[in-house]
């Protein structure tokens, strides 16, 4: 990614919480600013479970498929999905469209997400670690 990168911020809280969304917004905005990336849109699912396909994920897919953004920034992997298969499907979609999946509070590697035989333990640990620190 370069300073010409356009990013989408994705913020999600399972239990409706403006404070949690505000904290995520700051972390993700700081992440983008530190890299010199332009934020195209902030997509929020407030009060939406991480085990379902949240409405905001459809917006993310549409914008990525349309070539409008090169990166998605969330605070952690659990914001995208608490279901490892759902997370892998979303990561695969990003990879197929040349977009990166970034986390403000975790080091993320699309290859590690997409190759569970090599990294399933660390993927599941990352999801549960995120569950312990965020709602």
From TrEMBL:
PANTHER family: DNA RECOMBINASE-RELATED, DNA-INVERTASE FROM LAMBDOID PROPHAGE. InterPro entries: Resolv_N, Resolvase-like_N_sf, SSR_resolvase. GO terms for molecular function: DNA binding; DNA strand exchange activity. Pfam families: Resolvase. Gene3D superfamilies: Resolvase, N-terminal catalytic domain (3.40.50.1390). This is Resolvase/invertase-type recombinase catalytic domain-containing protein. SUPFAM superfamilies: Resolvase-like (SSF53041). CDD domains: Ser_Recombinase (cd00338). It comes from Salipiger bermudensis (strain DSM 26914 / JCM 13377 / KCTC 12554 / HTCC2601) (Pelagibaca bermudensis).
């Amino acid at each position: 990614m370069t300073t010409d990168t356009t990013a989408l911020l994705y913020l999600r809280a399972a239990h409706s919480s403006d404070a949690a969304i505000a904290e995520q917004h700051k972390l993700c905005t700081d992440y983008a600013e530190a890299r010199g990336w332009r934020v195209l849109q902030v997509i929020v699912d407030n009060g939406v479970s991480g085990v379902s396909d949240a409405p905001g994920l459809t917006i993310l897919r549409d914008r990525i498929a349309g070539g409008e953004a090169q990166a998605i920034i969330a605070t952690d992997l659990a914001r995208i999905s608490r279901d490892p298969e759902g997370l892998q499907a979303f990561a695969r979609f990003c990879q197929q469209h040349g977009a990166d999946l970034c986390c403000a509070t975790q080091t993320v590697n699309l290859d590690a997400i997409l190759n569970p035989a090599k990294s399933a333990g660390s993927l599941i640990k990352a999801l549960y670690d995120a569950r312990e620190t965020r709602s």
